[in-house]
Design brief:
The chain is α/β, with parallel strands linked by helices and 312 residues long. It has ten helices and twelve strands.
Amino acid sequence: MTVAVLSALVRPLVEPRLPDWIDARFYTSVEEMLNLAPDAEIGWFDLEKKEPMLAAIRSAEKLKWLNSIYAGLDFLPFDLLRARGTIVTNGAGINAITIAEYVVMGMLTVAKGYREVVRAQDRHEWLLDSPGKRELAGSKALLLGYGAIGKLIETRLTAFEVAVTKVRRSPGVDTLGPDEWRARLGDFDWVILAVPATSQTDGMIGAAELAAMKPQAVLINIARGAVVDQPALIAALAEKRIAAAFLDVTTPEPLPADSPLWSLPNAHVTMHLSGRAQDKMFVRAAERFVANLHRWGRDEPVEPRFDLDLGY
């Protein structure tokens, strides 16, 4: 029997479908998880707080496969997992639909001035003109990051007649290479960040990149807060050197109450809710996990495999 230590949150979704070679042990608290972790050969230790997760991973010396619902796992002890030979699967793609929808919502919110419409309703004020007059059709978007989320963003924006230029390692039609996009920043109305959090993407949008954008440009970040130099962004927004920023992610999170981003009229902060704006996350994660269990039992690769060397 293979010991799998799993959260009780997914128990009703996975227990009836577990293979007969799995000895499933479910935890309902951090204490239970930490007590069970040393026996885990397969572990699913997801919690809101990262420190107890890390404690479980460190104590799980028998761990052969670590599963997570999170797509971004930059907080993991890569060296330890690599030394143990632990295979890691992540949640890449599980939230892709809702995050891609969030990008479209953010663009429409800015384009149509929808926040001002909501505030007018709160004031019981009947507006006589639209506070936003931009159209998505005919605009140009630069999409940095072309994984599961990026592909769905492109599909949805194409339906809105937005010209999407992607950034990939291999340049091609409507595609820029990693050394080409900075020189073209001034061409785009929308700059969308959907890259993984790695040392290569950390701070990739800084003062120079913001200065290269057109004054009408809008920055959309659904990646990680660290991808953007936040003080430089605050300065660019305050001085209206770019039109707006729609930020689902910030540094740090939660965003401190005294951060200027809360009150800047051209900053939209959505509290890292994009992946949570759905009711299918655990269902999708459970289905993927059970399918991977059967692959594991047949000595087939589990997926999506998180690369501990690349960090995504």
